[in-house]
User: Fold this.
Amino acid sequence: VRDAGIISASQKIEHYEIATYGTLRAFANTLGEMEAVSLLEQTLNEEKEADKMLTEAAYNDINFEAHEEDDM
Ligand SMILES: [Fe+2]
Assistant:
C-alpha cells in the first residue's frame, strides 16, 4: 500500500508538471519564442512519458500487491 501511495503522489507531481509545461509552451508560442516552444515541448513529452511509466507500474505491480496485502 505504501508503494501505491508513493506512485499516486508521484503522478500528482507529474500532472502538475504537465499542466505547467503545457501552459508555458502556449505562452511561448503566443510570444513567438519558437526555440522555447521546442524545448518546453521536449520537456512536456518527457513528463508525459514519466506519467505513463508510473501508470504502468501502478497497474502491473503495485496495486495488485497492495490488494493482496489488504486480503491478509
Ligand atoms: Fe516529472
